[in-house]
Amino acid sequence: MPSVRIPTPLRKLTGEKELVETAGSTIGEILQNLDAAFPGLGERICDEQGQVRRFVNIFLNDEDIRFLQEKATPVSATDEISIVPAIAGG
Question: Residue 42: which domain range?
Fold first, then answer.
């Protein structure tokens, strides 16, 4: 199963787990399954239209899904997905 790295601010929803595994053949399926397993996680990653929020970056094996096929990006069992919130500051 693909593994998903959970950022520190969202770990309270995963029981403080940094790395979780979930089934899915696309990023979209992975996100749906994460939300089913960890309620509330999906609304922090995706907006009301189901699109990944602008301030959330998702990487598949170090490649930003925005430069791949976004939520339709295929995922294999050995892939690692990282959810990375954007950092702002001044």
Answer: 3-85
